[in-house]
Structure formats: structure tokens, C-alpha cells
Amino acid sequence: MNEQALLGLADDELVLGWRDSEWTGIAPLLEEDVAFSSIAQNEIGHARAVYSLLSDDPDALAFDRALEEYRCAPLVELHVLEWAHTIARRWLYEVADEIRITTLKDDSDPAVAGLAAKIDREEAYHRMHAEMWHERLRDEPRFEAAVEELWPYALGVLPPELRGELVSRVGLAEVEAIERGTHTEELAPLWEEMTLVRRSAPAGAQW
Amino acid sequence: MAAVEIPRDEQAFLEYVQGGGQVETTDWMPDDYRAKLIKFIEMHGNSELMGVLPEREWILRAPTLQRKLALTAKVQDEVGHAQLIYRVVEDLGKPREQCLADLVDGKAKFHNVFHYPTLSWGDVGVIAWLVDAAAIISQKALLKCSYAPYARIMKKICWEESFHILHGRDVILAMVTGTPEQFELVQEALDRWWGPLMQFHGNPIPSDEDPMYRWRIKSQGNGEARQQFLDGYVPQIWELGLTVPDPKLRKRDDGDWEFSEPDWDELKHVVTGHGPKTEERLAFRRRFLEQEQWVRDAVLAA
Amino acid sequence: MSVWEVFRRERKGQPLEHAGSVEAPDANFAEAWAREQYGRRGESVALWLVPRDAIRDVEDWADEFDLKYRRVDGYSIKARLKEARERAGTAGPG
Question: Is B275 exposed, middle or buried (0-12, 13-18, 19+ CB in 10 A)?
Fold first, then answer.
């Protein structure tokens, strides 16, 4: 897998992890709040691990790039602090990510393949969690609506050659994907807040 | 050994708990004991939950991945503590939904420190280091609570809190050895938080007038807790070159700390729901509680 | 929603101990949430989840007659031992 694609994976996990951590303290049930927080932490951890493959300074990659240099998919940028959309996104992302990780496990670079295997093992729990909620909410009209709304974005997480697999797993007809490469309006305010403290001190300051 | 039968008489029960006796969920207990217990433990649960909000915004702004992970884990623990605590309250007879409803309606209390704003990354360090330290002193004393289910969860809570203080101190140390501006950020935060910290353990009531102490729900007086806090943490503050905004603060020859009388009016004003951030935070909670009622309904429809 | 009691084993070789409870709509949610509350820090090697309804609580015991004969505290041998030693001449000084 090439560096740009790896950066895309890392940025997806960073931004989704950041979005998921917005639920800290305000999830619908306390038990779920705790569980969801672990998922957010794992995602940040995955981002950090992939950044570490690409650079000696993972924090610099995470925080110090210009907005246009981030390679995340539009799906993860969306600000959806509402449970139906949050679970819809989690579920769609997990299905897409599993497809992506599976190909990464066969990567010619052993460091990449090894890391993909580790991520895959941790993701098993995320998938179980997403499936559990999907089962529970699938008959709720607002959940079905959220999945349909986010579907074009979900397709954009994967390169075109992998989308067929996503279509068959999710069971929705393929539509025009919202492609990776352009950012939504939501990324800029996220980036502002994410880097607020970091930018308050000179580059290289310790925290 | 014959099983201990808890006497169904308030005076005998009082002697039982004052003699170190432990009470389980299904034991007989005086109505007053149960009522005081629920109120005390509920306030603790509310505090853990409300404590999340001042820290939550800084999770989103954490300046390194490690700090973001650590802060997320710390706050996660606090939500977890709320879960443990509300389960105990529920088994005593007050459902969690009722506790949460009372909280957002402003009918229930939570600790003073969570009514104040957090203004900088310096606050993040001060809270994790010193607010958590003040809390853990109370929590360690609660390990001896006469009500056993609560004492047992305190064990788990204290175990989890141990990393919070270390994380807080690490955040502070990074800043006080960083740029002059970072040092100032810490000092400024400390100047703002000192008042609430000194009020945290509550005004000193003589033990025999404190119903929580009589029932051995609390095993430590407020004044004693405060002294422990000062003894443990003022030296840690001073050794970093930070100052405490109280000119009267000093350790006497007899080992006790002298300090300016905390503002008890401010404490009362704040915990009765008039803190600078009280309304905003309760409204934030209320908004999400209402927004997600449908989720709880969907989940309940087993 | 029902309550599930959680038992945890900290390390191999340790007994399962009651750790607390979670409220959940079904076994899957109970598992997911109990894993978090009682295992996210690697503090448990095993969990048992039991619906509270499945637990039979036993707390009352009859102890009407003196059954000390079958417990250690039912035996006080000090005085007789002293007498026996004196008789055998094996009693120590004092």
C-alpha cells in the first residue's frame, strides 16, 4: 500500500476517533459511554501506530499539517452528534474498514501487514459492538434514514475496486460515491479545535 | 460463628455501625440511614458525571496523541465510576433515571469544583493533579463506609484514580519545565482553582454533629481531610516554584496547616446551583438526555 | 433492561469474585458493557455474567443449639494441658 493510502487510513482513524470522543460523558447510556470511549481510544491508537510507520514524529503528522494535507474521507469529518447517525457511521465504517484492513494484511511490506493484523484483532470488538447496535436499531426509521444518508460517504472510504464488496455486505444499491480528496466544510472547525492548544506554543514545545 | 443479625432498632443499629459493623443491601436499616446514604452516594455519582463536562472540551484540544488518550481514559473512568455509583443507589431504592432527572432539573447536588469553568490546558493539569488528589483523600476514607456495597466500589474507584493524579502531575511537570508562557499557564490556573480546592472538603462540622459521620457513612471529618490534602500537596506545589495565593498558608510547629478561612458563602452559593457554569452544564446534559430518550426506549424494548 | 451480576477472576489461580453489576437489555450488551467496566485495564482474565434473577440468595441460618463441638472455638485445652504437663513433670518454668 502506498504512503498516501496509509495516510488516508491514519487520518480516517484520527478524525473518526476525534468525532467519537465527542460522545464522552453524553452517550445515551452510561455503560455505552464507557464502551464508546474505548473505541475512540483504539482509533486514536491505530492512527498513532500508522503515523509511526510513516514518521518518527507521529504528533507532527497528526497535528502540524495544513488542512489540505489531510487525507481523511468525508465520512469521518461529518459532525453528527446524534445517536442514529453516529451508529450508522460506525457500522458503515467498520464494514468498509474491514475490507480495507483485509487487503492490508497481505501487504508486501511486513511492517504494514503486521500492523494491519494487530488492528484487525482489536477491530473485532468494534465490529461486535457495531453489529450489536445495528441489530437493535435496524427497524428504527431514523436509523435506516441515517444509513441511507451516509451511504454515498461510506462508499468513498474505499477505492473503487473494493466497493463491490461493500455493496454486497451492506445490501444497498451502489450510488455515486462522495470521494476522498476534497474536504467537507466540517473539517476546518474540527482542525481548529484539535490544534488549538498545540498552536498556542512554538513548534517543538513539550506538552 | 453465628451469623450477625442486624438489630432492627435504630439505637442498636447506630451502635453496630459505630462499632465497625458492615451493612449489606438486603439488611434492615433505619429509614434515616437509607435516606442519608442515598443522598450522599447520589451526590457522588452526580459529581463524577458532572466532572466529565469541564474536561471533555480539552479532550478535543489535547496537544499530543498521548495526552488525548490519557485524558480520554481518565474521563472514561469517571463515567465508569458514575455507573458503579448509580447502581449502588439503584439497589438502595432510587432508580438511575430518577437521579439523572433530578440532576438536570437542578434538584440534586454535585461537588463545587465542577461548577467552575476550565479556561486553559493549565486547568487540565491542575484538575487532574489537585482536584483528583482532594477527591481521592475523601474516597480513601470511604473505603471504611459502613455500607459495604459502596465501600467495595470505592476500592475499584481508588485503584482507577491512581493514574489520574500521576497523569495530572506529568502534564504540570511538562509545562513548568517548558516555556515561561506554559509555566504562567499553570500558575494562573492554580490561582483560580485554589479557592474551590480549599472549599472542596466542606466546612468543618464537629463529627458528632455530622449525620454522615454518626452513621459511619463518612469516617473522616472535613477538617481532617483538608489537612491531609494540604500536607500531601502543598509541598509538591512549592517544590515546583509555584505559589499558592494564600499569604496565611503555613505549616505550624504542631504539624497542622494554617490558612485563610475559605469562603463558605461561596461554597453554599455554588453547590445550591449558582456556580458560574452550573446552568450551562446542566442544560447541556438535559439536551442530550432528551435527545436520546428514543435510544433508551429502543434498547428497553427487549 | 435487567441487572446482570458480574463475577471476575483477576488472575489464573484466583477465585471468581463478585465485582458489581451492569444493567443491560440482553446478554450481548451485558457482555460488551461488562468487558468495559471490569476489564478495560486488563484487570480480569475472566468474567461470569449472571442475570440477577438466576441467583438464589441464601442468608438466613438457624443456630439455636450450641454446635461448638464441631468448631475450633469449641475447644479450650489450656487448663487441662497445663495440668497434664505438671503431672508428667514436663511443665516448663512459670
Answer: buried
